[in-house]
Structure formats: C-alpha cells, structure tokens
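ok trying this again, last paste got cut off
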Amino acid sequence: MEPVTDSSGARKPVVPAKRMAGWGFGLWILSIILGAVAASILFNAEFAAEPGIKAVAAYGLYALPTLLALGGTYFLLVAAIRTAIESSSGGGDLTRVIDSLERINKRLLLSDTAKRIAYRQEDLDVLRKTIVDDIAKHRFDAALALIAELSQTYGFIEEAEGFRDQIAGARAAEQEAKVTQAIARLEDILARYDFERAGAEVAKLRRLYPDSERVLQQERRVAQAREQRKHDVERQFLEAKDRGDTDKAMELMKELDKYLTPEEAAPFREIARDVIGKQRENLGMQFKFAVQDKEWLRSVRIGEQIIREFPNTRMAQEVRERLDKLREMASQQQAASGARV
C-alpha cells in the first residue's frame, strides 16, 4: 500500500488498484447471491399473492443486494481509474502523478489571468460599444450597469461619468418629448371645454413628471382656460337673452351652471327665471301651432322637448297625455308621405 500526501502535508496509505478491483468483484458476486435468495423468498412466500405486501417485501429484500452492487461498481471504477493513471506515468509513484496534476491546474489558473490581461483592450472596446448602443436604444438601466463595471472593474471613472451625463441628457430629452405630446392632448381636451377631464389629465402628468416645470404650468393653463370659458358663456348668455333667442340662452345657461358657484350664480337667478319663463311660453305656443297645423312630427318633437326641459310643469303633464296619440298620427303622416313619393 503506497503512501500519498494530502492537502495538509500528512502522508496516508493508498489502497492498490488490484485490491480494490477484487473488492468490487466480491461485492458484485455477493449481491448476485443475495438477489437470488431474495427472488426465491418472494416466489415461495405465502404473501406472494398479495400485490401490496409483495411490493413492500421486494423493496426490503432487494435493498441490500442493490447497495452491494453499487458498492462493487464504485470499487471497480476507482480501480480502473488508478490503473490508467499508473499506466500513463510508466508505473511510477502515484504521488508524482498527483503533484503533476496540481502543477497543471496552477498553470491553467495563471493562463486565465494572462488571457484576461492580454484581451483587456478588446473587452473594453466591446464594453464601450455596448454602452453606446444601449444609450442609443434608450436602455438606460442596462447601460448604467455596464458603466458601473467600466468604472469599478477597469478604473475609467471619468469616462464613466461622461456616459452618465449622456444618459441624464437622453432621459431629459425623452421626458420633454413625452411632456410635449401630453400637452398637445391636453389642448385638444381644453378645445372641447372638458375641464373635468383636463384636471384629471394634469393630475396624471404631475404623478408621471413631478419635477417638470412645464407640467406645473398646465395647472394654471387649465384654470385660466376654465375662467375664460366662464366669462365667454356669461357674455353669450346675456346677448342671447337680450335678442330674445331663448333656445340659445337655455343652452348657454345649462353650461354656465357648471362653472358658477352659488355666490356667482346669484346675480343671474332673475335673468334665468325670465329666460326659463319665456322658453316655456315659446315652446307652448310652438306646440299649440304645430298641433293646429296638423304638423304631427313637429308637434311630437316640441312635446318631447317640453317634457325634457320642464318635466314637472302642468304643460308637460298635458303634453304627456296627448303624446302617444300624436306619435301614432305622426307615423301615419310619415307613411302617407312615403307612399306619395
């Protein structure tokens, strides 16, 4: 039994390859014998007819032969490996072979370090190219990770800061482009006088771009646009009332109601009552003349407007009582008109 030196410098005996091969063959033979005995027991035992019990018994009886076979395989493999090593070293001392392997391993490690130094410039070129490509494609987080490696691993701190400045500038430009698009959408909303939605849009922009001065200005923009629209509607309402255009005045009055606080609406109450009264009278007269002239389609349209705008009035109740009959007559009138065509 030849001694070998372990990692601590102590020498320990090494089992010869031939002896280990003998152990392997012995364990294999023993496992075959025990396997045959186990098979005989399973075949002749009274519980062989019970599948569940037979399966459990098989696991128990074949466990030891299986372990012995595995042990024999292990010893045979180790013996084969040692035989190959001893043959390749010309039958020399196994210790010299192990020492040679350790020296080769150290050389390989040194070779990796040498290759890293040799290819340092190529690695830097690839790293820089990838950073530039990531910035161009707006993959800023990926670029920042590589910039950290450029600074910490290779020591190019100043160059890394330059790349970070590029990313900051690119991010600012990207944000400005998005803010510009958002403001254009906001202008479309304001053009439709949808100030409630405009306020929600500004709140969303504040959450997305809290540091943008242009976004902060949009709050004032919406407030100013709402105030301007309120003044325009007030003026148009008074003008429509003065020229007796009650339909337009009613339309503007409904919109004006969205902008005025109770205090602001107080001066308009008398004017609004006057407009409502005139509109009710006008619709009543239009409905009456349409019925008298047997313009059933027009009478139905005016009647529906009366019910919609003055649902709780006596006039609306009278229209409801006649509306079904008017609709029937309007349908007949439409059918007769189509037949003449």
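PB: full thing came through this time. The mean pLDDT is 79.
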